[in-house]
Amino acid sequence: PNAKNLAVVVSAMGGKPKVTDLLLEAVRHASMREHNKVDDQLDIVLSKHSECLKILFHQEYAEQERLIKIIKGGLNDIRDILKTVSLMKWQAERISEVVSGFGELWSTQILTALLRMRSNQKLVEKFGSDSISNIVKALTTTSHIHHNYVFLDARRVITIDEDAIKDGAVVWHVSEEKFMEIFKEEEAKLGDARDSILCHFIITGYVAINTDGVAVTLKRDGSDYSAAIMGKILRANSISIWTDVDGVLSADPRRVPLANVLPEVSYDEAMELAYFGAKVIHPKTMQPALSCDPQIPIYIRNTFNMRSPGTRIFTNATTTKQNEKVVCGFSSVEGMALVNVEGTGMVGIRGVDKRIFGVLEYHDVNVALISQAISEHSVTFATSEDQAELAKSIIEEEFWRELKLGLVSSVDIRAPVSIIAAVGDGMVDTTGVAGRFFSSLGGAKINVLAIAQGSSERNISTVVWSSDSTRALRAVHAAFNLSNMTARVGIIGMSEVGISLLRLLEAERDSLKSNFDLDIQVCMVCPESGSEEIFSLRNDTESGTESLTIGAITRVTEDLDEMTKTTFADEEHAAVVSKGGLGLCFDTLFRKECTFHAIFDCTNDEASGRYHAGWLRASVDVITANNRGLSGPKHQREDIKEAEKSNGKQSGVYLRETVVAGGLPIISTLRSLLHSGDKIRRIDGIFTVVKSYVMFRISPPPNVAACSQFDVTSSNGVFEGHMKTSSTAFVGEACSFSQSCERGCTFRTH
Known about the structure:
The protein is an alpha/beta fold and 750 residues long.
């Protein structure tokens, strides 16, 4: 065959339910002697194919009848096989393989007939004759190229040695010899017209034959594997896998909505991504293309979006050559458990690891990740959650003597956990990759349970709690510039400050995305702390990218003249109103899968200040222009300080810069001085007018009498002399500092 010849590998008919699944269910029902259910399954198979043939060959009744006859004949063969299954009440694997392979035989013959019919129709249109044989003879005298499609049962070619490895190994020299014989036979049929006719093979996927001549299957992703095998046998220029996605993605789009299609990945990167859960291609599919000389590139294309170029998998990829994108993608393995074997008696003792993993292998417990420190004090490994208890029990049985003597202190399980893996050839010899990876997890307040990295530097794997898995994927995906870091923001208080802030976030959103890879989404607005109304996005979904704007929310306020009760229903950024007040703010804002959350408190009310501590404990950063949180009751101030440290780095950050000195950067300046080693002895300044007034009255200077005239003129005699209040002043029970500030303001305006 030459570069112009095509080979198309076909799988069984899909849809819901899939034909392969229906056939396997029929075998299962037969083993249980449920004959009615067997007939139901096979009737559905026949119905699916009949409907398909009516659509594809709606005017070719003879071809319909021919193909239906083939399918019914296959179903009769299956019924004969299932009689044996029913008699023996035994669902043998070999029988399941034979029966499940019929789906590929039928779909391949249907596609071959369709392509052959359309190719012949083009010949008839060109030469104006209904006799295909006469037209073929005429091809010898013209330059027209005719395409001939040949049905090929892969069981005539692909030969598997089942004794070589667990799932069998292809016997390459035998398979290649078989195909060359078939190709020569088909070429001989063309006779003198062989130079004007291109022969294309339509091949069954999934099925093969073993060295004893018995029909077998290629197990999971068998059709893709068949395509790779045939690609190597044919020495193909490329192998294209047509699936239902645009290519290999940088992350699971269901969990990372901003995941993008990778134009290129290397074989090694694709292997790593495939093992860690990327469903696009199975690692075994790449083995034939990788072992061929020269190696064959594999293209992942979308059947439903043929304009998409897809992903090219080859020896080297340029995706990770850019320094800021050394990682090509991230994957995760869910439903895992960590098993930790710990004890002082393990330190420096030979054979401990051999005993642990030897007994696990003996009981068929698969180990996905291993982590061990140089001290050898503990060995940690990850396995599937459903095998964790088995792993623990067999290790305790193996080390029962050491456990009794205290040499092994414990065998613990942590579940459910997830493995997050960063994959990329660009990580090799690139400094700072691990630092960026773990810094992003720390910044997202995610605790790391275990770490593993091979010397190839192509993969960094870490274990986190499953509840943090989605958030971890989004954080690391954004950290390596594969998407924007998303922050969900809520604003409390539509005062002049709150309105200005919302307008600023709206105006600068695109700039923050392009310059800092940060997407700030305003997802919640509370007009004021006493309001019962909360405004949120109408379509606030996990993959949503919308943000509230001034023109898209329903606002109700009586404090500002320019704002009236108006409803805005912008289709792109529609907002909805909910009842609940401040108590609903957190539930409206927080999404577990999101990395960062922040609330801007633009009020000056004690009511919102009472919620600051709770938001901080829930890992929500609080940026406040409201000093009532810290200047309220003593227990509230202490509660906020405790909340800042309650969960370590998991706690939210409390940013109160704007409440000091009218927003001047005093706090950040003081922190910089302290971090650089300076000692602050004294601070002079007037930080706020109200506090200065109140503190002056609490601790007046020596010449306080000089201020008496000020008291008379500015406060109408409310204060007289040395802290003596007039008879008109209100003096009651002890008040909080914020209350004293209120009264200070009142005194000034009397």
